[in-house]
Design goal:
- There is one protein chain.
- By secondary structure, the chain is an all-alpha fold.
- Helix content is 57%, strand content 0%.
- The chain contains six helices and no strands.
- Helix 3 (55-74) packs antiparallel against helix 6, helix 4 packs antiparallel against helix 5 (116-138) and helix 5 runs antiparallel to helix 6 (145-169).
């Protein structure tokens, strides 16, 4: 049977609303819903995290933190003079742009975070990126603590990242497993 492409809705007689209730499943009048426990997997842990809400995201964040920790350790071998103390090269200005973008995105992720662990994790990463920005602008001689703070902040973020990843690695109790 070939139709004309227009779906025709049957007219409901005045004063009869049972067809609407029948279509919506008959859960009640006025489209109210009878709330009942959902038969889906529910874990309070998964609802705690706003950004790192899966094991995969936690692993990716941890890998990024480890890579940037390695870069921060490499910073000890290459001291920065800063663009205010010496003429800046194109690489220095590109690095400043990268640090501004990264620190801004990480600060935004702090605002999106729901639980305290996730918020602290992104705050540590934001602080580290901000110290990297300050180190590039002012140099190691004007701000010697920046080099050490980057490493301390990223080391703390890596430790907290392992705790977040461990939270996703815990076995699920039998009460929340689907049948």
């Amino acid at each position: 049977m070939v139709g004309d492409g227009i779906t025709r809705v049957p007219q409901i007689p005045a004063g009869r609303s049972d067809s609407v209730i029948r279509i919506t499943g008959g859960r009640g009048t006025g489209h109210t819903r009878n709330w009942r426990p959902l038969e889906t997997l529910y874990s309070a842990l998964m609802n705690d995290f706003g950004v790192l809400n899966s094991r995969k995201r936690a692993v990716i964040a941890l890998i990024h933190s480890l890579v940037f920790l390695g870069i921060a350790f490499h910073g000890f071998a290459s001291p920065k003079s800063g663009i205010l103390r010496a003429p800046g090269t194109t690489g220095d200005f590109a690095l400043i742009g990268i640090y501004v973008v990264v620190a801004s995105i990480l600060a935004w992720l702090v605002t999106l975070s729901r639980c305290l662990r996730e918020r602290i994790y992104f705050a540590l990463c934001t602080t580290s990126a901000t110290f990297g920005l300050l180190r590039t602008i002012f140099g190691d001689s004007a701000l010697p603590v920046a080099q050490y703070m980057r490493v301390v902040m990223l080391s703390s973020a890596v430790a907290l990242g392992f705790l977040i990843l461990r939270a996703f690695s815990r076995p699920v109790s039998e009460e929340v497993l689907p049948e």
